[in-house]
Amino acid sequence: MNLESKYSYVLGLVLGVLLLVTSCETKPPTNLADHTLIPHPVEIAGTGDRFLLAGAATIQIANASLQGPAEYLIKAQPGMKLTTDQKADIVLSLDANDEQLGEEGYVMNITRNQLLLSANHPRGVFFGLQTLLQLIPLSDERPIEIPTGTIRDYPRYAHRGSMLDVSRHFFGVEDVKRYIDFIAAYKFNVLHLHLTDDQGWRIEIKSKPALTAIGASTEVGGGAGGFYSQEQYQDIVQYAADRFITIVPEIDLPGHTQAALASYPELNCDGRAGELYTGTKVGFSTLCTDNEATYEFVDAVVKELAAITPGPFIHIGGDESHATEKEDFIYFINRAQKIVSKYGKTMMGWDEIAQGEIEKESVVQQWNSAGNASKAAENGNKIILSPAKLAYMDMKYDSTSRIGYDWAALIEVDQAYNWDPDTVNATVPSELIYGIEAPLWTETVENMEDIEYLVFPRLPGYAEIGWSPQSIRNWETYRVRLAAQAPRFESEGIGFYRSPVVDWGKQDSIN
């Protein structure tokens, strides 16, 4: 190589290095605040840098109670591993020391070198991990790049639930677990299981075997039905608990009881077993409320259900009991409440139960009557808001929806999102609103594909209503963040409805 060639080579090498350094230095800044997170965090601030997370990232936990959340993260992001090194890439701790966070809030500090997630309680760490998983890009490229900054976050309401009706159509254990994963990803903390109705009894009661031998044998349309053994139910409860979700079981009484009436003749006032029912009408069935056999039955059911339900609530239904005289209905609710209390649980029920002499600790779920909810509020009861015209996910999106009902309303994605719990019922003070719940009734829902179609993309909006402050909620920014969730829906194999009110083309902007 002559002198001129050597000079050219060295000059090219220097220029290449300078170009590389310059390109690194001029890489555009990041902004954590330009996020696509759902629910929207309470506080979020970016610092303009990047945290690079390798595929084999390390996680350090400061407390043994965080083993479960750490393992959840590792399962979601294979390749990560636990370490005892305090210089780990991700550190999970319980040293937030921030009363405002409560048990479910968290603080996430992201620097160039480390991601620190702290809370007051393991459930706060778990909810923080849901935020982290949304910050991690779906791309297989490594290292993962996350904007630096701080997130401080906590929920608006204590109760953030969804109800799944497994009675009209039965759904097996794995389907219920998949539904639990859906709601866990968006920081819900309650799954309300509607276990009994006219069309089927879905929970084993060992002292009342005919409930499953007869009452569980069918469903809407005449299908085979099914039920959960107590062991299967406990498996569901534990799966939910591992994701910091409480199961609220519902035994709908004294109406919506045809499956029970067909199983035990003594529950009928004429002493004769009713017929199994596979239709969709409501309001025609009732237990015989002046028969002591009815209360012996309720006692046996609640006793066994309470024993396998670690959560504080038993939901007794109480809705649409049109075949029960009002005086008899009130008498029944009063007695049922005492049975629930007898076994160490708190009664929850649909808004009709407020007609009874309910204890102040009981929780009333408003679905239809503002008057009933107002009466409960006057009594000091906490209220869960599930207004049918806004929160029922079995309602169609529009007149062309392939399944669903429209008796309450057509609920497009923007209508599902654009409401404030504080203004649903002006006579219920904000401090008595325990939270919100989005129910999915399953008269028209036969399989998981149907569930996904009606639930997504409305479910994330209900999550944000329950978690985020009203002051930072905005449909125009939310619809962009929702569009950016589409690749995540697809990665989970969720067959979601591509609502025309959302510009799904925005999904390329995700992280």
What does this protein look like?
With 511 residues, the protein is of the alpha/beta class. The chain is 33% helix and 18% strand. It contains 17 helices and 17 strands. The chain has helices at residues 3-25, 67-76, 122-135, 173-184, 210-213, 230-241, 258-263, 292-307, 326-342, 370-378, 388-391, 413-417, 421-424, 448-455, 459-467, 475-483, 486-491; strands at 43-53, 58-61, 81-82, 90-93, 106-110, 115-119, 144-153, 159-165, 190-194, 196-197, 200-201, 246-253, 313-317, 346-350, 363-366, 382-385, 433-440. An 8-stranded parallel barrel has the order 8-9-12-13-14-15-16-17, surrounded by 7 helices. The chain has a 7-stranded mixed sheet with strand order 1-7-5-6-4-2-3, with helices on one face. Helix 2 (67-76) runs parallel beside helix 3 and helix 8 (292-307) runs parallel beside helix 9 (326-342). The model is unreliable at 3-26 and 507-511 (pLDDT under 50).
What is the topological layout?
Layout: H1 3-25, E1 43-53, E2 58-61, H2 67-76, E3 81-82, E4 90-93, E5 106-110, E6 115-119, H3 122-135, E7 144-153, E8 159-165, H4 173-184, E9 190-194, E10 196-197, E11 200-201, H5 210-213, H6 230-241, E12 246-253, H7 258-263, H8 292-307, E13 313-317, H9 326-342, E14 346-350, E15 363-366, H10 370-378, E16 382-385, H11 388-391, H12 413-417, H13 421-424, E17 433-440, H14 448-455, H15 459-467, H16 475-483, H17 486-491
